[in-house]
Specification:
mainly alpha; Rhopdopsin 7-helix transmembrane proteins; 18 helices
């Protein structure tokens, strides 16, 4: 079967995605210090690239050559656990791969083993029709359809597990940190959304390809899927590479705090509080308010619950529990309320006329412009600019 010279627009898009994946993979490989999250990102990019190569084998006509017919590239069941492990490595820095994670790769190993067996069997002949006969005798098309169904369901399950992990990470950030800029969390939230879209397109492509009543060539659906996949490789490679290996949020926390992130240690029934415990809680609550007001710890943009606990001479877990139960809010919300009040006080002084609104925000412990505006409005009920305008109006009256 002949194939037109040159590449189609679709093939060029896929090749650009593959090239981007290769460049970022090379950059990760050449790094002097290798972190697990970057190595897992490398594995994800390589897997996505191989899926791109797989479709190019069909579109460029290589499928009709002797040695590329049934070439084993069965990676559809590998990407799901890799992305989930990548998320895990970002939200929990001490995370390490060990034997308990190997079962996640068993479906991929079986799938690849089958693909290798079919390929080796077809190498016994140079005739393409005979190769097809051998593959059909091994139920190749049926097995591949079943594998794709399993891959889609697997993707849904792993996406849910990853989204749950990201949600737990968000809650942990609220309980143990006060920083207003969350680059890792924001990236993971976007990654979850992008993967959700990918799974949706994949599932829809499968349904339309196999059960479509529309008069559209099946390959059109695959083109949409692989163009999105190529775009995802480009974005994932660039943004994933830019994420710091050890974020400030996690790098400065104690092992006890990191362990408290784990779900098993975050949940559980609340024990009844004795009078003695209640008085201790009230005392600690007063001490928390005192040090926040007198020492102005909230001005530190990287304030963590461990720093506050050190000042109080208590443990981070006890302080977190008191804040959650006695104040009825997270550590982050409590600290940001003090920051917002500090901004209001500065705006009420004559000196504020010589400072920009963002400059005042940074002076009061905020470290991100976008988060400052969002947090101020959520706590004060109005935007910072509206507050300034109202203040001017009241002063004129």
């Amino acid at each position: 079967m002949s194939h037109n010279a040159g590449f189609s627009l679709f093939e060029v898009i896929i090749l650009i995605g593959i090239a981007q994946g290769i460049i970022i993979s090379a950059m990760i490989t050449l790094r002097k210090r290798q972190q697990l999250n970057k190595l897992l990102l490398l594995a994800v990019l390589i897997t996505f690239n191989l899926l791109g190569v797989k479709i190019l084998i069909h579109t460029t006509g290589l499928w009709h050559s002797v040695y590329f017919r049934y070439f084993p590239l069965a990676f559809e069941l590998l990407i799901q656990p890799l992305v989930w492990l990548y998320i895990h490595s970002l939200v929990y820095v001490p995370f390490k791969l060990n034997r308990k994670h190997w079962p996640h790769f068993v479906p991929f190993a079986i799938s690849m083993g089958y693909a290798l067996a079919v390929y080796m069997a077809t190498l016994s002949t140079m005739d393409l029709n005979e190769k097809d006969a051998i593959a059909n005798g091994l139920s190749f098309n049926l097995v591949k359809q079943i594998e794709e169904i399993l891959a889609i369901f697997s993707a849904i399950i792993y996406w849910w597990m990853g989204a749950r992990l990201v949600h737990q990470y968000r809650q942990w950030l609220f309980d143990y940190t006060s920083t207003t800029d969350y680059p890792t969390y924001n990236w993971l939230r976007r990654l979850s959304l992008l993967c959700f879209i990918l799974i949706g397109i994949w599932g829809l492509t499968f349904l339309l390809e196999n059960f479509s009543i529309f008069q559209i060539r099946p390959f059109v659906y695959l083109q949409v899927f692989f163009i999105y996949l190529s775009s995802l490789v480009y974005y994932l490679g660039f943004r994933g590479y830019m994420i710091a290996d050890n974020t400030v949020i996690l790098a400065k926390l104690s092992q006890q705090q990191l362990l408290s992130f784990l779900p098993a240690q975050r949940s559980g029934p609340v024990s009844p509080v004795s009078n003695d415990q209640s008085s201790k809680k009230n005392l600690l609550k007063e001490q928390i308010e005192k040090v926040l007001i007198e020492q102005k710890l909230y001005l530190d943009p990287e304030l963590t619950i461990q720093k506050l606990a050190d000042v109080l001479g208590s443990s981070s877990s006890v302080v977190s529990k008191v804040i959650n139960q006695s104040f009825g809010k997270s550590f982050r919300t409590l600290v940001n309320e003090y920051r917002v009040e500090a901004v209001k006080r500065m705006l009420d002084t004559p000196q504020s006329q010589n400072l920009s609104l963002l400059g005042i925000a940074f002076e009061c412990g905020f470290n991100s412009e976008a988060s400052f505006y969002r947090i101020f409005k959520s706590i004060a009920g109005i935007s910072p600019k509206t507050y300034v305008q109202q203040n001017k109006h009241f002063k004129q009256e």
